[in-house]
Description:
The complex is a heterodimer of chains A (114) and B (113).
Chain A: E1 3-5, E2 10-14, E3 19-21, E4 24-26, E5 32-38, E6 44-50, E7 56-58, E8 64-68, E9 73-78, E10 87-94, E11 102-104, E12 108-113
Parallel strand pairs in A: 2-12
Antiparallel strand pairs in A: 1-4, 3-9, 5-6, 5-10, 7-8, 8-9, 10-11, 10-12
Chain B: E1 4-7, E2 10-13, E3 19-25, E4 31-37, E5 44-50, E6 53-56, E7 64-67, E8 73-78, E9 87-94, E10 103-104, E11 108-112
Parallel strand pairs in B: 2-11
Antiparallel strand pairs in B: 1-3, 3-8, 4-5, 4-9, 5-6, 7-8, 9-10, 9-11
Amino acid sequence: AQSVTQPDIHITVSEGASLELRCNYSYGATPYLFWYVQSPGQGLQLLLKYFSGDTLVQGIKGFEAEFKRSQSSFNLRKPSVHWSDAAEYFCAVGARGYAGKSTFGDGTTLTVKP
Amino acid sequence: DAMVIQNPRYQVTQFGKPVTLSCSQTLNHNVMYWYQQKSSQAPKLLFHYYDKDFNNEADTPDNFQSRRPNTSFCFLDIRSPGLGDAAMYLCATSPRGGPYEQYFGPGTRLTVT
Lengths: 114, 113
């Protein structure tokens, strides 16, 4: 079965600074990988996804993520954080196949300092 | 805009009193999911429907049931809510079976008194 680890429970960055959120996965083959964002009291919104091909994927709101097979990682990055980026971020991994489901990490809470 | 709608956004029920949460979608997606999310935790999949096919997670308590009368609507029934069932309940859809991207509703916050 697949699993996801987000090592950082909480990260604080200053507005305008760069951001990197870590995600490590465990899965026997090439997984489907996702990053979602959740604002307080809201549902999750898809930021970006990786299925195959180019290992650097671009998403919405200026986010990008890089799939590194050798490190089993799919870290999320943003060059300049805005106050509105404060939220909880979830990495998810999906197993291929009809019956495959997504497994979510425990999330990283991002606080943005003015 | 096509979307996933959950009603109500906030629900208060009494210990042991049955409650139903509602989800509707205008995306015409085949798959609908129900998740339970407790504070500062990952969403936990309860069950999902692929069209009319119901798929229950092995660790979902019998207290939780679901109905999908048509493509657009899906309901979560909690037969006898306990204090431990207080959580955010998230509905999500996906256009096809498998681990593809999901589209989430805003959630229903359930309080059990």
